[in-house]
Specification:
alpha/beta; globular; about 375 residues; 3-stranded mixed β-sheet
């Protein structure tokens, strides 16, 4: 069985290339496939069994639902995924579990918040990149300690639910031949959201990206660096922290195909096979990484080796270039002193941008998918 906890939101990040998905390729290898929780890879009409090669599609819960009672807001979707695993324990399976925590709004049941009743927030414990979020929380009337307890309680229900899945795999005897991947689709969300300003429960959005600048809605490292934890007994070394290799979920399609013996892949893939890195190798990746939201005028970014380039929005302003090996917090723009790097990376990034769709199907409220 194969169980990735979460993947990036946008369909392009699956490594679609010629519009072939990993689930379609795995189905050809005899895998049963399931998806539980958020969707975000197509309009509502695509939320049906069989879409993208997914046998069972269950879009459970809404990220804007307010949680009531004692249960964590993702309990139901994890239960559905566990049922799917039990039903398919005798054959190979692949499962997406895409939870809502810690998506806005964070309104956590009291019993989960109580687990952190003794937490006291000390501003000095956080890097400068977090201080504006602390300021905004206080400015809109939040109690810093209580807001952090709310956020931690929402994280805690993720821990509990992931633990339920892990225990299920262990009890079914699937531990040794199941790859478990835990990740996220972006960094922590802002407290005050642009033109929308402060909303109810905004003060609870206290996710922390450490030294990294930005978060959700940005292409800075605080938005694009995400957790990536793998359990694969006997294959991925337990307790090992890899702080050198650079990978992305855009690599997941060619990597899983390599692991499962799938040979025929689409020609146009932005990801690369990083199965050797998962197994302990150290090497530079061979392909650059690209980022851009679905808004057609949004700012694109590229990483190639140590360099991170941000093009200005709609060509207004100046490009930003950072050397992440020396400046991971993207605090010093060195574009002016490295015009050759800016020129080269800009050409690569613009060639990628022109391949993207000119428009996206809009859902309710003008949201794009």
């Amino acid at each position: 069985g194969l169980f990735p906890a979460r993947f990036p939101k946008y369909a392009a990040d699956f490594g679609f290339g010629d519009r072939i998905t990993i689930t379609e390729l795995l189905k050809q290898q005899g895998y049963k496939t399931g998806h539980f929780g958020k969707w975000h890879i197509g309009p509502k009409k695509t939320e049906v069994d069989g879409m993208y090669g997914i046998d069972s599609v269950k879009v459970i819960g809404k990220s804007r639902d307010v949680t009531t009672g004692d249960a964590g807001r993702d309990d139901d979707l994890y239960s559905a995924a566990i049922d799917f695993i039990r039903e398919n324990k005798d054959g190979p399976f692949y499962v997406n579990v895409w939870g809502h925590a810690t998506h806005f709004p964070v309104n956590t049941p009291a019993n989960l918040v109580a687990e952190f009743k003794d937490v006291k927030v000390e501003r000095k414990d956080f890097s400068p990149t977090m201080q504006h979020k602390v300021d905004e929380c206080l400015q809109i009337g939040g109690d810093l300690d209580e807001s952090m307890r709310q956020y931690l309680g929402d994280v805690y229900q993720i821990d509990q639910n992931v633990g339920r899945v892990m225990k299920t795999l262990d009890k079914l005897g699937l531990r040794d031949n199941t790859i478990v991947v835990f990740s996220s689709d972006h960094g922590p969300a802002p407290v005050v959201l642009g033109k929308k300003g402060a909303r109810k429960y905004s003060n609870n959005m206290l996710g922390y990206a450490g030294e990294f600048r930005g978060g959700k809605h940005t292409q800075y490292e605080g938005g694009t660096r995400v957790p990536f934890i793998i359990r694969w007994p006997g294959k991925v070394k337990a307790g090992c922290i890899d702080s050198k290799n650079v990978c992305s979920f855009v690599d997941w399609l060619p990597t899983l195909c390599s692991i499962t013996g799938i040979k025929e892949l689409p020609q146009q893939l932005y990801g690369e096979d990083v199965s050797d890195i998962l197994l302990g190798a150290e090497r530079l990746r061979t392909k650059p990484l690209f980022w851009k939201s679905s808004a057609t005028g949004s700012t694109p970014a590229l990483r190639d080796g140590p360099w991170k380039l941000h093009l200005p929005r709609k060509q207004r302003g100046e490009p930003e270039l950072y050397n992440l090996s020396a400046d991971p917090s993207e605090s010093k723009n060195v574009a002016a002193t490295h015009p050759d790097v800016v020129a080269s990376l800009s050409r690569t990034l613009r060639r990628w941008v022109v391949e993207l769709p000119d428009d996206y199907e809009k859902l309710g409220g003008g949201k794009q998918e």
